[in-house]
Amino acid sequence: MIEFEHVSKEYPGGAIAVAEFSCVVPSHRTVVLVGSSGSGKTTLLRMVNRMVDPTSGRVLIDGEDVRERDPVELRRSIGYVMQHGGLLPHRTVLDNVAAVPLLTGAPRRAARSAAAGLLERVGLDPALGRRYPSQLSGGQQQRVGVARALAADPNILLMDEPFGAVDPIVRRELQRELLQLQSDLGKTIVFVTHDVEEAFLVGDEVVVLEAGAGIAQRGAPAEILAHPANEFVRDFVGADRAERRLHAVDMDGRTVAVDGEGRTVGVLEP
Ligand SMILES: Nc1ncnc2c1ncn2[C@@H]1O[C@H](COP(=O)(O)OP(=O)(O)OP(=O)(O)O)[C@@H](O)[C@H]1O
């Protein structure tokens, strides 16, 4: 479990990125922080692995203040996936995935064979392990980023716009694969995105942020869509958009769902 307790962050120069943010991320759940650019999402994420220390307030992991932990050891114990993969360009894919286990003393052979297994787990041919990151597509690089984050078998995964740099079709595939992975592995995931559709797809819970990481609403996707807390959330999640407004139409004994633009989007199960 991760707890943010009244955390604030003022950067040198006076930018208040986060103001008094409190939130609990339950173990084995995916909580998505969604908000527009500059709302403080990355700052919050980086407080968990101490890449950013809050100006005030605390972040606790399983009850322990992260400031009690050694930052390097803490970072190695938490998986972190960045938008552009963050892979080391001069290391092979396999060595990128094995990097943290090697740093923490795993034998080379075991680390590499575990890394090959992780490549398969994220849907890549282990033969790609011999290539360098620049010899992979954007989607493949993101998969390597996920494999690398999983390599130390962390309980916590931090994902910062992990699929932001790939085309929409690959993005959809990666999102689905993450859901599958999560149903197998049950990590505690904090996922940052500015894309509401992505937030609703991958999140067990979604936290909609305003400027300064103010919580506009927090809840399951269905709760937020059904009962947006205010105009800001209603607008942000597009609750009134035509494709979200479905109605039922009888069609020869079956009921089909039709959206606000008249498009048939599915059949309701009896
Ligand atoms: N190192 C820094 N020094 C000064 N100001 C910063 C620093 N990092 C972030 N900020 C400011 O803090 C605010 C929040 O930034 P943050 O990156 O956390 O937002 P975000 O929601 O992740 O944005 P994006 O979606 O654009 O990545 C912004 O106004 C940003 O300019």
TrEMBL record:
What EC number is given for this enzyme? 7.6.2.9
* Superkingdom: Bacteria
What Pfam families does the entry give?
ABC_tran
Keyword tags: ATP-binding, Nucleotide-binding, Transport
ABC transporter domain: residues covered: 2-237
Q: Which GO terms describe its molecular function?
A: ABC-type quaternary ammonium compound transporting activity; ATP binding; ATP hydrolysis activity
Top-level enzyme category:
translocase
InterPro entries for the chain? AAA+_ATPase (IPR003593), ABC_transporter-like_ATP-bd (IPR003439), ABC_transporter-like_CS (IPR017871), P-loop_NTPase (IPR027417)
Would you identify the family this protein belongs to, as annotated?
A: Belongs to the ABC transporter superfamily.
- The protein in question is named ABC-type quaternary amine transporter
